[in-house]
Design goal:
Layout: E1 28-30, H1 63-66, E2 72-79, H2 85-100, E3 103-108, H3 109-116, H4 123-138, H5 181-192, E4 213-218, H6 235-247, E5 254-261, H7 265-280, H8 286-289, H9 292-295, H10 300-316, E6 330-335, E7 340-344, H11 349-358, E8 366-372, H12 377-381, H13 392-408, E9 411-412, E10 415-416, E11 420-423, H14 427-432, E12 440-442, H15 475-480, E13 490-492, E14 498-504, E15 507-510, H16 527-533, H17 535-543, H18 556-572, E16 577-581, H19 583-594, E17 610-616, E18 623-628
Parallel strand pairs: 2-4, 2-5, 3-4, 5-6, 8-16, 11-15, 11-16
Antiparallel strand pairs: 1-3, 6-7, 8-17, 9-10, 12-14, 13-14, 17-18
């Protein structure tokens, strides 16, 4: 048997905040815990009382916990080698789990076939993979079906006539307990028996109430698994996979093929570069060799090997057909990462969300700068929320940020680069960004072979700690930073003639989606006042900070829902982006960008007067740099408890 090449070392996908633990090898999963079909701060409302002896066992879902209710899909990534299929699998897994609470599991076809042990393309391998998919789909990892775990009417165990009296010994109401969904179901079966339950444990209706499950199939080595039936490399293999899933009606999973088509040389080169970084690491540190993350030299041997492999694979690979023979299949053709997206039979919420997300992601590196607003007057007083102006220290930070941005963000590795700026609609973020310059720059300045000029020299007041890594200009890097959409503005000549398109650096955009978490009735209060006046609410929030919703206010999960559309916008950018926002919002963005879980967000520290630079490309682990600009101020304020 031919020795298979070494597989890439892919970074683990971010788990949901409510993990059930890591999965074996490359079949990775992000799954919510069974006790979290709802937020923890609601659990006291689900217990039986004398007034409510038969309570609701599970409250209605919210988008961030169970936004893909009952949806079961198998996504099969296909295409020529080195098109970034593992990258897309990772990005989709991260997005669907973080923002929608879906249970997602990645299946590397190469790894699963190695464990199957059969000959390439054998029925044994194919059914081994199918059983793995079924085991994931059928696993009871959610307690969302507990409302159905009650006795049927007429079983002799109906509810009492008066809801004001306590339940009789015959009536055994469903009570929220700790432990897995399997344990809870077993307890109910021991009490009532299968035939007495409202919905039988094997009834397919139980499968339509969980948070949604998505299996993503991809290949690290497209050549090695070409003959496997789940590879989707021919019409016959795609037809077999579709019919196999359709025949298992109890499974209820729908199949979507995602074909990645890339014919642009710059994207292919970026994918090859990313693959080498993931396998071997950068060729040199950025401090010593400039923008190595972007400009690793690809050996000629690597390029020749890639071109040869791609030609051989293209001769035997069959693309998704648009001649009508595969019109009954659901598929997406992703052409040059969003330049063009073709969809077929993509009906339904999840399918369109996937298509939309795929249309904005790209494999080139992202550079995101996160900054809290400068210290506000409410920060000084320790109050929550509100719309206060900046304190004198916050005003000084705004001036220092305005001096720091042109020197360290306008120029990336010594090259003038287009940049963007977002703020919330609250005055403390707008005031923090108000001094940042917005020069109008000719579009040709970003593409000049010799560059414009070196970045301005640092003033004597700046320290080395606030200086990002340097590097030498690179024309290839500049060409990849060109925006796909130039704003319709032009430089005007002496006679009023429109001469040249321009770009406005740091053109400010205000998004209400970036506003701070709304504390509802607690707006303008200090945390000590809340503890004194509402001790039970304060205790409840301390035990469930991510799910607790302020009275008539928001929770962290509500913020996730309003950040979702902004993340689509963020993922589409090629330019560095500066986001000036608030602690709770930046906590969630930071966790998403750095691969942390949602549960970690409320505990993170987002210090004042500090800029956090995050660089990621979806292949290698994100890198982070922090720049403290000052001035000194108290980091212990009311916002710490948000």
């Amino acid at each position: 048997r031919r020795r298979r090449p070494k597989k890439l070392a892919m970074p683990d996908p971010p788990a949901l905040p409510l993990d059930v633990g890591p999965m074996a090898s490359d079949a990775r999963s992000t799954s919510p815990g069974a006790q979290h079909a709802y937020v923890q701060s609601q659990s006291h409302l689900l217990k039986a009382t004398s007034d409510n002896p038969l309570p609701t066992a599970v409250p209605p879902p919210i988008a961030a916990v169970a936004g893909l209710l009952g949806v079961r899909h198998v996504l099969c990534l296909i295409g020529l080698p080195e098109r970034g299929k593992p990258f897309i699998a990772q990005r989709l897994s991260k997005y669907l789990s973080f923002f929608h609470g879906a249970e997602v599991k990645l299946f590397d076809v190469n790894e699963v076939m190695d464990r199957a042990g059969g000959p390439p393309g054998s029925d044994h391998n194919a059914m081994f993979m199918f059983e793995e998919i079924k085991a994931f789909m059928n696993a009871t990892s959610s307690a969302a079906d507990r409302n159905m775990t009650v006795p049927r009417a007429g079983s002799g165990r109906s509810a009492p006539a008066s809801s004001s009296s306590p339940p009789s010994p015959e009536v055994r109401p469903v009570v929220v307990r700790e432990g897995s969904a399997e344990v809870q179901l077993a307890e109910s079966l021991a009490t009532h028996g299968e035939e007495e339950l409202l919905v039988h444990p094997s009834d397919r209706r139980r499968k339509n109430v969980d948070s949604g499950k998505v299996a993503i199939l991809f290949a690290n080595d497209t050549f090695a698994c070409f003959k496997e039936k789940w590879s989707g490399t021919s019409k016959e293999r795609r037809r077999w996979a579709s019919e196999t899933l359709a025949k298992d009606r109890a499974l209820g999973a729908k199949l979507i093929f995602i074909e990645v088509i890339v014919d642009r040389a710059d994207i292919l080169e970026a994918n090859l570069r990313a693959r080498e970084r993931a396998k071997n690491g950068p060729t040199a540190s950025r401090e010593s060799a400039g923008p190595a993350m972007y400009e690793d030299e690809l050996p000629d041997e690597c390029l020749r090997e890639f071109e040869d492999r791609a030609r051989r694979f293209q001769r035997i690979y069959v693309s998704m057909q648009e001649d009508g023979s595969e019109d009954d299949l659901s598929y997406i053709k992703l052409i040059n990462y969003g330049d063009k997206v073709v969809t077929n039979r993509m009906h339904g919420y999840l399918r369109m969300r996937i298509a939309q997300f795929l249309s904005v992601i790209h494999p080139t590196p992202h550079v995101i700068y996160l900054s809290r607003h400068g210290q506000s007057e409410y920060n000084v007083l320790g109050k929550l929320g509100g719309n206060p102006p900046l304190s004198p220290a916050g005003q000084e930070y705004a001036r220092r940020l305005a001096q720091w941005v042109p020197r360290h963000i306008f120029y990336q590795h010594g090259v003038l680069t287009k940049c963007r700026l977002w703020t919330s609609s609250l005055q403390r973020t707008i005031l923090t960004a108000t001094h940042i310059p917005h020069p109008i720059v000719p579009a040709s300045s970003f593409d000049s072979p010799d560059g414009i000029s070196s970045p301005p020299r640092r003033g004597s007041h700046e320290t080395d700690a606030a200086t990002p890594s340097g590097g030498t200009p690179s024309h290839r890097f500049r060409s990849r930073q060109r925006s796909r959409q130039l704003p319709p503005r032009y430089l005007q000549g002496d006679e009023g003639v429109l001469n040249e398109p321009v770009w406005e650096q740091m053109s400010p955009r205000v998004y209400r989606n970036l506003d701070e978490i709304f504390a509802g009735e607690y707006e303008g209060m200090t945390y000590e006042e809340i503890q004194h006046s509402f001790p039970s609410e304060a205790k409840m929030r301390a035990t469930d900070k991510i799910g607790f919703r302020y009275p008539r206010g928001e929770s962290y999960l509500d913020i996730l829902a309003r950040l979702d559309p902004l993340v689509h916008e963020l993922e589409s950018y090629h330019e560095p982006l500066v986001i000036v926002s608030h602690q709770a919002v930046l906590r969630l963005l930071y966790c998403y960008l750095t691969g942390r879980t949602r549960a970690q967000a409320p505990k993170l520290s987002m210090p004042l007067h500090t800029v956090i630079r995050i660089t990621y490309d979806g292949w290698t682990p994100p890198t982070e740099e922090r720049f403290y600009l000052g001035p000194e101020c108290s980091q212990t304020d009311g916002q710490t408890h948000l």
